[in-house]
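FAQ: What does a ligand-bound record look like?

Like this one, built around adenosine monophosphate:
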Amino acid sequence: MKLGIIGGGQLGRMLALAAYPLGIDVRTLEPSPDAPAGRLTEQIIAAYDDRQALAAFAAGLDLVTYEFENVPVQSAAFLAERLPVHPGPRALEVAQDRLHEKTFFRSLNIPTPGFAPVASPAELRRAVADLGLPAVLKTRRLGYDGKGQYVIARAADLDAAWEALGGVPLILEEHVDFSRELSILAARSTGGEIALYPLVENHHRGGILRLSLAPAPDRDGALNRQAESLARRVLEELGYAGLLAIELFERDGVLLANEMAPRVHNSGHWTIEGAETSQFEQHLRAITGLPLGATTARGLSAMVNLIGTLPPIEPILALPGAHLHLYQKAPRPGRKLGHITLRAADTRKLQQTVLAIAQLVPELPARSLI
Ligand code: AMP
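The answer part, i.e. the structure of the complex:
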């Protein structure tokens, strides 16, 4: 079997690494010649909307998937006329626009932060009057890792927020005073089988994920039950095939849906060593119609992102239960260059290793663990 992946970043690379043991060959479509997946896969170097390249990419493939959600919908539709593309175009359309996404959640009775569309300064004033302050102004499309966002703390910030983001369609959201950020990784196969991973607790700095803990502490399992129920509704409504991540805020014991990614996700990297089946293998099983794998956690895991610069490798590998993943990308501020997964049998041992890693990795919010 030969799988095409649109996008050749680290997610494509880790998908390829999971594909080979299943006997699946991989071809990637990626404009950058030195992208992380290119070293491991047959690569077509071209823009994502290059029709000729898309036709060459599709030739001889059995199936196509993608590793980022901003794949042009027309490109996905062009490929879908020739061969199966999973997840389907509706998931892409919903996930590409924050307003559609939150409206979609609401239509499934999934709680979200309050929100309103904003297309003019007058609409911004009206939305602020409705939702109150503080609030977050975001571009509806193409935002990631906190980019395209402006936190409006006071009425005096309105002009500056409009100045910074105005001119493209926007959404204003209530600023949620959450107790934790969590995510759920959920898979549905082409045959309709569903498998859900335990909730993950995520810690960000500067809008970028730094640390994930899995399974997230959840004393009586109530949060996992909420997450499972909402994830099932999303998967079923979309007739989804593949792995889906939903990012959530916990407020007063209730989960609010922030956004979803119709792909494998950074907060699921811990599953490579920390779960019975990795999210990458699960995605491949789901889109090829194979039975889904068990999602059981193997002890406790912490996933630490390596951002901007790489720490010395030897002391990391000397730590018990540490697993290093480098993406072979050139260092650049704010860039995800790799990750480390730490596994431990209990919370105390996990805390010890995370604190040891915090000596080596800048901006790791390790204190939030204690
Ligand atoms: P996003 O691109 O929507 O995932 O936002 C990036 C990060 O900004 C989130 O992980 C949160 O830490 C923060 N954030 C986004 N939206 C909100 C909100 N409505 N209220 C509070 N914090 C938010």
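Follow-up question: can I read anything off the structure? Yes, for example: The longest strand covers residues 242-251.
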